[in-house]
Amino acid sequence: MRSYRRPGRYEAGSQASAAERCHHGHGWTVFSYLISGMAAYGGIGWVIGHFTHISLLFPIGMLIGLAISVGWIIYRYGRPHELGNPPKGDDR
Predict the structure, then answer these.
(1) Sign of the C-alpha dihedral, residues 27, 29, 34, 39?
(2) CA 47 to CA 54: how far, in whole Å?
């Protein structure tokens, strides 16, 4: 066990602002949305393709899952003005 404290970690009693806590871990969340969308719809495509003997449904299902995941990510994280971060400069 290490006895020193790591910088950048958040504790329950820390004085980190809400904006700092809000963005902590968003990258892993986006990555998991992409992987799970491809896995879920790729699996559905594989099952349907297995029973219909159409092997092309697996990659099509993965692409559809990726597209749905990207759409969900844009919907969820593509609205900075609603999350309390007003646009800067000419983006108003």
Answers:
(1) positive
(2) 10
d(Cα 16, Cα 12) in Å, to the nearest integer?
Answer: 10
10-residue mean pLDDT series, the chain (92 residues): 54 53 77 95 96 95 96 84 58 52
| Cβ-contact 24, 9 below 8 angstroms | no
Q: Is the pTM of this model over 0.85?
A: no
- DSSP readout, 23-70? TTTHHHHHHHHHHHHHHHHHHHHHHHHHHHT-TTHHHHHHHHHHHHHH
Cα atoms found within 13 Å of the Cα of residue 32, Cβ hemisphere only: 5
